[in-house]
Amino acid sequence: MDVRELLETLASAVVESPDAVKVTQAEEDDAIVLELSVADDDYGRVIGRDGRTAQALRTLVKAAAPEGHRVFVDIID
Hints:
This protein has one domain (3-75): GMP Synthetase, Chain A, domain 3 (2-Layer Sandwich), CATH 3.30.300.20. A three-stranded mixed beta sheet has the order 1-2-3. It is of the alpha+beta class. It contains three helices and three strands.
């Protein structure tokens, strides 16, 4: 499972509308940029209280990143 699939799976488990979860991936040099979008009603669930859920998602995805790559997770609306 690559980091894009991991983020998509984790975000789908958190939200009420898993069909609306979309993750796009862009690679720049040694960095992977993942853009996460969810249904309008689910942004609060993905971000969490004080951003804790978003930070946990970022931590898990960064831990699964390939050796020598940096991963950035952007939650877009």
